[in-house]
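Researcher: Structure for this, please.
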Amino acid sequence: MTREFSAWPPTLPEIVNFLLRRFDEHGRAPTLLGVGPMSETAVTAGIEAARDRDCPIMFIASRNQVDSREFGGGYAEGWDQKAFAEAVRRSAREASFDGLLFICRDHGGPWHKDEEWAARLGPQEAMERAKRSYAGDLEAGFDLLHIDPTKDPGLPAPLPLELVRKRTVELVSAAHAQAQRLGLKHVGYEVGTEETSGGLTEPSVLEGFLQSLCEELKSIGLPRPAFVVGQTGTLIRMRANIGRFDGEHAKKVASLLRRLGFGLKEHNADYLPQTALSQHPDLGITAANVAPEIAHAETVALLDLAQREEQAARTLKPSGFAELLEKLSLESGRWRKWLGPSEQKMGEEALLSDPAMRRKLVEVSGHYTFGHEDVRRARRQLYENLKKAGLSEDPHREVLEAVKASIERYVRAFRLEGLTSEFRSHAPRV
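Model: Predicted structure, C-alpha coordinate format:
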Protein backbone atom coordinates (compact mmCIF):
# COMPACT_ATOMS: atom_id res chain seq x y z
CA MET A 1 0.00 0.00 0.00
CA THR A 2 1.40 3.39 -1.07
CA ARG A 3 1.77 5.83 1.80
CA GLU A 4 0.20 8.98 0.38
CA PHE A 5 0.37 10.97 3.61
CA SER A 6 3.52 11.83 5.50
CA ALA A 7 1.82 11.75 8.91
CA TRP A 8 -1.50 11.25 10.66
CA PRO A 9 -3.69 13.19 10.64
CA PRO A 10 -3.10 14.57 7.15
CA THR A 11 -3.62 18.26 6.49
CA LEU A 12 -6.49 19.49 4.32
CA PRO A 13 -4.14 20.44 1.46
CA GLU A 14 -2.76 16.87 1.52
CA ILE A 15 -6.28 15.45 1.40
CA VAL A 16 -7.19 17.73 -1.51
CA ASN A 17 -4.14 16.52 -3.47
CA PHE A 18 -5.08 12.91 -2.69
CA LEU A 19 -8.60 13.43 -4.02
CA LEU A 20 -7.36 15.21 -7.15
CA ARG A 21 -5.08 12.25 -7.93
CA ARG A 22 -7.94 9.86 -7.21
CA PHE A 23 -10.13 11.64 -9.74
CA ASP A 24 -7.40 11.59 -12.39
CA GLU A 25 -6.93 7.86 -11.87
CA HIS A 26 -10.54 6.72 -11.53
CA GLY A 27 -12.73 9.47 -12.99
CA ARG A 28 -14.42 10.07 -9.66
CA ALA A 29 -13.54 10.96 -6.08
CA PRO A 30 -15.54 11.60 -2.92
CA THR A 31 -16.71 15.15 -2.28
CA LEU A 32 -15.77 16.52 1.14
CA LEU A 33 -18.54 18.08 3.23
CA GLY A 34 -18.39 21.42 5.03
CA VAL A 35 -21.12 21.96 7.65
CA GLY A 36 -22.16 25.36 8.93
CA PRO A 37 -21.84 25.48 12.75
CA MET A 38 -25.07 27.40 13.40
CA SER A 39 -25.38 25.86 16.86
CA GLU A 40 -23.81 23.35 19.20
CA THR A 41 -26.50 20.91 18.08
CA ALA A 42 -25.28 21.24 14.48
CA VAL A 43 -21.69 20.61 15.61
CA THR A 44 -22.63 17.51 17.61
CA ALA A 45 -24.79 16.18 14.77
CA GLY A 46 -21.94 16.64 12.30
CA ILE A 47 -19.47 14.86 14.55
CA GLU A 48 -21.84 11.96 15.20
CA ALA A 49 -22.50 11.62 11.47
CA ALA A 50 -18.75 11.56 10.77
CA ARG A 51 -18.22 8.99 13.54
CA ASP A 52 -21.05 6.72 12.41
CA ARG A 53 -20.17 6.95 8.71
CA ASP A 54 -16.37 6.86 9.17
CA CYS A 55 -15.81 10.04 7.18
CA PRO A 56 -14.06 13.41 7.52
CA ILE A 57 -16.04 16.49 8.56
CA MET A 58 -15.31 20.18 8.11
CA PHE A 59 -17.01 22.93 10.09
CA ILE A 60 -17.10 26.17 8.10
CA ALA A 61 -17.74 29.20 10.31
CA SER A 62 -18.63 32.58 8.83
CA ARG A 63 -17.61 35.76 10.64
CA ASN A 64 -21.25 36.42 11.53
CA GLN A 65 -21.42 33.01 13.21
CA VAL A 66 -18.04 33.02 14.97
CA ASP A 67 -15.63 35.91 15.42
CA SER A 68 -13.25 37.60 17.83
CA ARG A 69 -14.58 39.14 21.03
CA GLU A 70 -13.34 42.56 19.93
CA PHE A 71 -15.78 42.32 17.01
CA GLY A 72 -18.68 41.13 19.15
CA GLY A 73 -18.26 37.36 18.79
CA GLY A 74 -20.87 35.57 16.69
CA TYR A 75 -24.54 34.67 16.78
CA ALA A 76 -23.74 30.95 17.00
CA GLU A 77 -23.81 30.31 20.76
CA GLY A 78 -22.00 33.63 21.25
CA TRP A 79 -18.77 31.87 20.25
CA ASP A 80 -15.48 33.49 19.53
CA GLN A 81 -12.89 31.36 17.75
CA LYS A 82 -11.42 29.84 20.91
CA ALA A 83 -14.81 28.94 22.38
CA PHE A 84 -15.95 27.51 19.05
CA ALA A 85 -12.86 25.34 18.66
CA GLU A 86 -13.17 24.15 22.25
CA ALA A 87 -16.85 23.27 21.72
CA VAL A 88 -16.01 21.28 18.59
CA ARG A 89 -13.25 19.35 20.32
CA ARG A 90 -15.38 18.78 23.41
CA SER A 91 -18.20 17.39 21.27
CA ALA A 92 -15.71 15.10 19.56
CA ARG A 93 -14.48 13.76 22.91
CA GLU A 94 -18.02 13.24 24.20
CA ALA A 95 -18.96 11.37 21.00
CA SER A 96 -15.76 9.25 21.18
CA PHE A 97 -14.83 10.53 17.75
CA ASP A 98 -11.18 10.21 16.79
CA GLY A 99 -11.56 10.69 13.04
CA LEU A 100 -10.70 13.57 10.76
CA LEU A 101 -12.10 16.88 11.96
CA PHE A 102 -11.28 20.24 10.42
CA ILE A 103 -12.17 23.70 11.74
CA CYS A 104 -12.45 26.23 8.93
CA ARG A 105 -13.10 29.91 8.32
CA ASP A 106 -15.78 30.58 5.70
CA HIS A 107 -15.78 33.99 4.02
CA GLY A 108 -13.10 35.55 6.13
CA GLY A 109 -12.10 38.98 4.95
CA PRO A 110 -13.17 42.61 4.99
CA TRP A 111 -16.84 43.55 5.28
CA HIS A 112 -17.98 39.94 5.82
CA LYS A 113 -19.20 40.91 9.27
CA ASP A 114 -22.67 42.42 8.80
CA GLU A 115 -21.86 45.30 11.15
CA GLU A 116 -18.82 46.24 9.08
CA TRP A 117 -20.86 46.35 5.90
CA ALA A 118 -23.63 48.38 7.54
CA ALA A 119 -21.08 50.85 8.94
CA ARG A 120 -19.44 51.14 5.50
CA LEU A 121 -15.99 50.95 7.03
CA GLY A 122 -13.11 52.34 5.03
CA PRO A 123 -10.83 49.87 3.22
CA GLN A 124 -7.87 50.25 5.58
CA GLU A 125 -9.92 49.65 8.72
CA ALA A 126 -11.86 46.76 7.16
CA MET A 127 -8.66 45.06 6.03
CA GLU A 128 -7.00 45.47 9.43
CA ARG A 129 -10.03 44.01 11.18
CA ALA A 130 -9.98 41.07 8.77
CA LYS A 131 -6.32 40.43 9.59
CA ARG A 132 -7.01 40.48 13.31
CA SER A 133 -9.94 38.11 12.82
CA TYR A 134 -7.69 35.69 10.92
CA ALA A 135 -5.14 35.97 13.72
CA GLY A 136 -7.85 34.84 16.15
CA ASP A 137 -8.63 31.91 13.85
CA LEU A 138 -5.03 30.79 13.83
CA GLU A 139 -4.61 31.17 17.59
CA ALA A 140 -7.61 28.86 17.99
CA GLY A 141 -6.03 26.26 15.69
CA PHE A 142 -8.17 26.63 12.56
CA ASP A 143 -7.19 24.34 9.69
CA LEU A 144 -8.45 26.34 6.68
CA LEU A 145 -8.91 30.05 6.02
CA HIS A 146 -11.17 31.32 3.26
CA ILE A 147 -9.56 34.51 1.97
CA ASP A 148 -12.41 36.46 0.41
CA PRO A 149 -11.84 40.17 -0.28
CA THR A 150 -14.59 40.38 -2.92
CA LYS A 151 -16.88 42.74 -0.98
CA ASP A 152 -16.55 46.50 -0.68
CA PRO A 153 -19.51 48.79 0.06
CA GLY A 154 -17.68 51.71 -1.53
CA LEU A 155 -17.37 50.08 -4.96
CA PRO A 156 -19.82 48.53 -7.43
CA ALA A 157 -19.82 44.72 -7.66
CA PRO A 158 -18.05 42.77 -8.94
CA LEU A 159 -14.80 44.33 -7.78
CA PRO A 160 -11.92 44.79 -10.25
CA LEU A 161 -9.91 41.56 -10.29
CA GLU A 162 -6.64 43.41 -9.85
CA LEU A 163 -7.95 44.79 -6.56
CA VAL A 164 -9.20 41.35 -5.50
CA ARG A 165 -5.79 39.85 -6.27
CA LYS A 166 -3.93 42.61 -4.41
CA ARG A 167 -6.10 42.25 -1.30
CA THR A 168 -5.94 38.45 -1.45
CA VAL A 169 -2.13 38.53 -1.42
CA GLU A 170 -2.12 41.06 1.44
CA LEU A 171 -4.43 38.89 3.56
CA VAL A 172 -2.62 35.61 2.80
CA SER A 173 0.66 37.31 3.66
CA ALA A 174 -0.65 38.52 7.02
CA ALA A 175 -2.21 35.15 7.87
CA HIS A 176 0.85 33.17 6.83
CA ALA A 177 3.14 35.38 8.90
CA GLN A 178 0.92 34.80 11.93
CA ALA A 179 0.84 31.03 11.27
CA GLN A 180 4.63 31.00 11.18
CA ARG A 181 4.86 32.95 14.43
CA LEU A 182 2.60 30.34 16.02
CA GLY A 183 4.57 27.44 14.51
CA LEU A 184 1.56 26.18 12.53
CA LYS A 185 2.35 24.05 9.49
CA HIS A 186 -1.08 22.53 8.84
CA VAL A 187 -3.00 25.61 7.66
CA GLY A 188 -4.62 25.60 4.22
CA TYR A 189 -6.17 28.44 2.24
CA GLU A 190 -9.26 28.87 0.09
CA VAL A 191 -9.82 31.71 -2.39
CA GLY A 192 -12.65 32.83 -4.61
CA THR A 193 -16.27 33.63 -3.98
CA GLU A 194 -19.77 32.36 -4.79
CA GLU A 195 -20.86 35.31 -6.93
CA THR A 196 -23.38 34.33 -9.59
CA SER A 197 -22.39 36.79 -12.31
CA GLY A 198 -19.32 38.67 -13.50
CA GLY A 199 -15.98 38.55 -11.74
CA LEU A 200 -14.60 35.01 -11.46
CA THR A 201 -17.53 33.03 -12.87
CA GLU A 202 -16.07 32.57 -16.37
CA PRO A 203 -13.45 29.76 -16.56
CA SER A 204 -11.04 31.74 -18.74
CA VAL A 205 -11.16 34.73 -16.38
CA LEU A 206 -10.79 32.46 -13.36
CA GLU A 207 -7.75 30.76 -14.89
CA GLY A 208 -6.01 34.05 -15.60
CA PHE A 209 -6.74 35.33 -12.11
CA LEU A 210 -5.41 32.18 -10.45
CA GLN A 211 -2.27 32.06 -12.55
CA SER A 212 -1.37 35.66 -11.74
CA LEU A 213 -2.30 35.18 -8.08
CA CYS A 214 -0.15 32.07 -7.70
CA GLU A 215 2.79 33.64 -9.50
CA GLU A 216 2.75 36.52 -7.03
CA LEU A 217 2.26 34.24 -4.01
CA LYS A 218 5.19 32.09 -5.14
CA SER A 219 7.42 35.09 -5.78
CA ILE A 220 7.14 36.17 -2.14
CA GLY A 221 7.23 32.69 -0.62
CA LEU A 222 3.55 32.30 0.23
CA PRO A 223 1.57 29.03 -0.03
CA ARG A 224 -0.79 28.18 -2.86
CA PRO A 225 -4.48 27.81 -2.02
CA ALA A 226 -5.88 24.30 -1.62
CA PHE A 227 -9.46 25.20 -2.60
CA VAL A 228 -10.95 27.63 -5.08
CA VAL A 229 -14.61 28.53 -4.77
CA GLY A 230 -16.38 28.08 -8.09
CA GLN A 231 -19.91 28.85 -9.21
CA THR A 232 -22.05 25.79 -10.06
CA GLY A 233 -25.35 27.62 -10.50
CA THR A 234 -26.57 27.33 -6.89
CA LEU A 235 -28.49 30.14 -5.20
CA ILE A 236 -30.44 29.84 -1.94
CA ARG A 237 -33.56 31.79 -1.14
CA MET A 238 -36.00 30.92 1.62
CA ARG A 239 -36.14 27.12 1.95
CA ALA A 240 -35.05 26.25 -1.58
CA ASN A 241 -32.13 26.30 -3.97
CA ILE A 242 -33.63 28.50 -6.66
CA GLY A 243 -30.50 28.44 -8.80
CA ARG A 244 -30.03 25.94 -11.60
CA PHE A 245 -27.28 23.47 -10.75
CA ASP A 246 -25.16 23.29 -13.91
CA GLY A 247 -23.29 20.00 -13.92
CA GLU A 248 -21.55 20.66 -17.23
CA HIS A 249 -20.23 24.01 -16.05
CA ALA A 250 -19.17 22.47 -12.73
CA LYS A 251 -17.31 19.72 -14.58
CA LYS A 252 -15.54 22.27 -16.77
CA VAL A 253 -14.48 24.41 -13.80
CA ALA A 254 -13.41 21.37 -11.78
CA SER A 255 -11.28 20.12 -14.67
CA LEU A 256 -9.64 23.52 -15.05
CA LEU A 257 -8.88 23.78 -11.35
CA ARG A 258 -7.62 20.20 -11.16
CA ARG A 259 -5.21 20.92 -14.01
CA LEU A 260 -3.94 23.91 -12.05
CA GLY A 261 -3.66 21.86 -8.84
CA PHE A 262 -6.70 23.16 -6.93
CA GLY A 263 -9.80 21.52 -5.54
CA LEU A 264 -13.17 23.00 -6.53
CA LYS A 265 -15.16 24.11 -3.47
CA GLU A 266 -18.87 24.57 -4.06
CA HIS A 267 -20.82 26.87 -1.76
CA ASN A 268 -24.59 26.81 -1.26
CA ALA A 269 -25.22 23.13 -1.96
CA ASP A 270 -28.23 23.31 0.39
CA TYR A 271 -31.58 21.89 -0.74
CA LEU A 272 -30.20 20.41 -3.97
CA PRO A 273 -32.05 17.24 -4.99
CA GLN A 274 -30.35 13.93 -4.34
CA THR A 275 -29.83 13.37 -8.06
CA ALA A 276 -27.72 16.54 -8.31
CA LEU A 277 -25.79 15.82 -5.11
CA SER A 278 -24.97 12.29 -6.26
CA GLN A 279 -23.31 13.72 -9.39
CA HIS A 280 -20.75 15.68 -7.37
CA PRO A 281 -18.09 12.94 -7.05
CA ASP A 282 -18.30 12.22 -10.80
CA LEU A 283 -18.04 15.90 -11.73
CA GLY A 284 -14.86 16.44 -9.75
CA ILE A 285 -16.30 18.76 -7.09
CA THR A 286 -13.77 18.32 -4.31
CA ALA A 287 -15.83 19.83 -1.49
CA ALA A 288 -19.20 21.46 -0.89
CA ASN A 289 -20.56 23.65 1.90
CA VAL A 290 -23.99 23.30 3.49
CA ALA A 291 -25.36 25.62 6.18
CA PRO A 292 -28.91 27.05 5.91
CA GLU A 293 -30.45 23.62 5.36
CA ILE A 294 -28.83 22.35 8.57
CA ALA A 295 -30.19 25.30 10.54
CA HIS A 296 -33.62 24.85 8.97
CA ALA A 297 -33.70 21.22 10.09
CA GLU A 298 -33.03 22.23 13.69
CA THR A 299 -35.58 25.05 13.67
CA VAL A 300 -38.34 22.89 12.20
CA ALA A 301 -37.65 20.09 14.67
CA LEU A 302 -37.94 22.55 17.57
CA LEU A 303 -41.16 24.06 16.25
CA ASP A 304 -42.61 20.58 15.85
CA LEU A 305 -41.79 19.87 19.49
CA ALA A 306 -43.47 23.14 20.47
CA GLN A 307 -46.64 22.04 18.68
CA ARG A 308 -46.53 18.79 20.61
CA GLU A 309 -46.17 20.73 23.84
CA GLU A 310 -49.55 22.36 23.24
CA GLN A 311 -51.17 19.01 24.02
CA ALA A 312 -50.04 19.42 27.64
CA ALA A 313 -50.76 23.13 27.98
CA ARG A 314 -53.58 22.56 30.48
CA THR A 315 -51.36 20.69 32.94
CA LEU A 316 -48.01 22.44 32.58
CA LYS A 317 -46.85 26.02 32.35
CA PRO A 318 -46.19 26.55 28.61
CA SER A 319 -42.62 27.32 27.65
CA GLY A 320 -43.68 29.97 25.15
CA PHE A 321 -40.83 28.79 22.94
CA ALA A 322 -42.57 29.12 19.57
CA GLU A 323 -43.94 32.58 20.33
CA LEU A 324 -40.58 33.82 21.58
CA LEU A 325 -38.71 32.37 18.61
CA GLU A 326 -41.12 34.07 16.22
CA LYS A 327 -40.91 37.41 18.01
CA LEU A 328 -37.12 37.54 18.15
CA SER A 329 -36.64 36.11 14.66
CA LEU A 330 -38.92 38.64 13.01
CA GLU A 331 -37.51 41.52 15.05
CA SER A 332 -33.97 40.59 14.00
CA GLY A 333 -34.76 41.31 10.36
CA ARG A 334 -32.26 38.66 9.29
CA TRP A 335 -34.98 36.90 7.29
CA ARG A 336 -34.73 39.67 4.70
CA LYS A 337 -31.52 38.24 3.21
CA TRP A 338 -33.36 35.00 2.37
CA LEU A 339 -36.35 36.49 0.56
CA GLY A 340 -36.90 35.16 -2.95
CA PRO A 341 -38.54 37.00 -5.86
CA SER A 342 -42.08 35.97 -4.90
CA GLU A 343 -41.63 37.08 -1.28
CA GLN A 344 -40.07 40.37 -2.33
CA LYS A 345 -43.02 40.96 -4.64
CA MET A 346 -45.46 40.45 -1.76
CA GLY A 347 -43.85 43.20 0.30
CA GLU A 348 -42.93 43.11 3.98
CA GLU A 349 -46.31 44.21 5.31
CA ALA A 350 -48.08 41.36 3.53
CA LEU A 351 -45.43 38.86 4.59
CA LEU A 352 -45.67 39.78 8.26
CA SER A 353 -49.47 39.79 8.31
CA ASP A 354 -49.73 36.26 6.90
CA PRO A 355 -49.35 33.53 9.62
CA ALA A 356 -48.14 30.95 7.09
CA MET A 357 -45.50 33.33 5.76
CA ARG A 358 -44.40 34.29 9.26
CA ARG A 359 -43.81 30.60 9.97
CA LYS A 360 -41.64 30.36 6.84
CA LEU A 361 -39.66 33.44 7.85
CA VAL A 362 -39.02 31.95 11.28
CA GLU A 363 -37.92 28.66 9.73
CA VAL A 364 -35.17 30.42 7.74
CA SER A 365 -34.06 32.82 10.47
CA GLY A 366 -34.84 31.16 13.80
CA HIS A 367 -31.30 29.88 14.19
CA TYR A 368 -29.97 33.43 14.54
CA THR A 369 -31.73 33.57 17.93
CA PHE A 370 -30.63 30.20 19.37
CA GLY A 371 -27.87 31.86 21.40
CA HIS A 372 -30.26 34.38 23.02
CA GLU A 373 -30.54 33.62 26.73
CA ASP A 374 -34.35 33.87 26.72
CA VAL A 375 -34.51 31.36 23.86
CA ARG A 376 -32.13 29.03 25.68
CA ARG A 377 -34.32 29.24 28.79
CA ALA A 378 -37.54 28.62 26.86
CA ARG A 379 -35.93 25.71 25.05
CA ARG A 380 -34.95 24.08 28.34
CA GLN A 381 -38.51 24.55 29.61
CA LEU A 382 -39.90 23.08 26.40
CA TYR A 383 -37.77 19.97 26.83
CA GLU A 384 -38.74 19.65 30.49
CA ASN A 385 -42.45 19.98 29.71
CA LEU A 386 -42.32 17.33 27.01
CA LYS A 387 -40.59 14.90 29.36
CA LYS A 388 -43.02 15.56 32.23
CA ALA A 389 -46.02 15.10 29.97
CA GLY A 390 -44.65 11.84 28.58
CA LEU A 391 -44.56 13.31 25.07
CA SER A 392 -40.85 12.66 24.53
CA GLU A 393 -38.24 10.68 26.41
CA ASP A 394 -35.41 12.78 25.01
CA PRO A 395 -36.50 15.91 23.09
CA HIS A 396 -32.96 17.08 22.42
CA ARG A 397 -32.05 13.73 20.89
CA GLU A 398 -35.03 14.10 18.55
CA VAL A 399 -33.74 17.49 17.41
CA LEU A 400 -30.21 16.14 17.09
CA GLU A 401 -31.36 13.21 14.97
CA ALA A 402 -33.27 15.55 12.64
CA VAL A 403 -30.15 17.64 12.07
CA LYS A 404 -28.02 14.53 11.72
CA ALA A 405 -30.35 13.12 9.06
CA SER A 406 -29.99 16.33 7.07
CA ILE A 407 -26.20 16.02 7.19
CA GLU A 408 -26.16 12.31 6.37
CA ARG A 409 -27.97 12.76 3.08
CA TYR A 410 -24.86 14.63 1.89
CA VAL A 411 -22.52 12.03 3.35
CA ARG A 412 -24.26 9.34 1.30
CA ALA A 413 -24.51 11.36 -1.89
CA PHE A 414 -20.88 12.46 -1.71
CA ARG A 415 -19.67 8.84 -1.19
CA LEU A 416 -17.91 9.71 2.01
CA GLU A 417 -18.68 6.58 4.02
CA GLY A 418 -15.50 4.74 5.00
CA LEU A 419 -13.22 7.44 3.65
CA THR A 420 -11.38 8.03 6.93
CA SER A 421 -10.38 4.38 7.16
CA GLU A 422 -9.15 4.53 3.60
CA PHE A 423 -7.08 7.61 4.43
CA ARG A 424 -5.61 5.81 7.42
CA SER A 425 -4.41 3.03 5.14
CA HIS A 426 -2.39 5.61 3.21
CA ALA A 427 -0.70 7.08 6.29
CA PRO A 428 2.42 5.83 8.09
CA ARG A 429 1.67 3.20 10.71
CA VAL A 430 2.12 4.51 14.24
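Researcher: Any notable elements?
Model: The two ends are 15 Å apart (CA to CA). Residues 296-402 form one domain.
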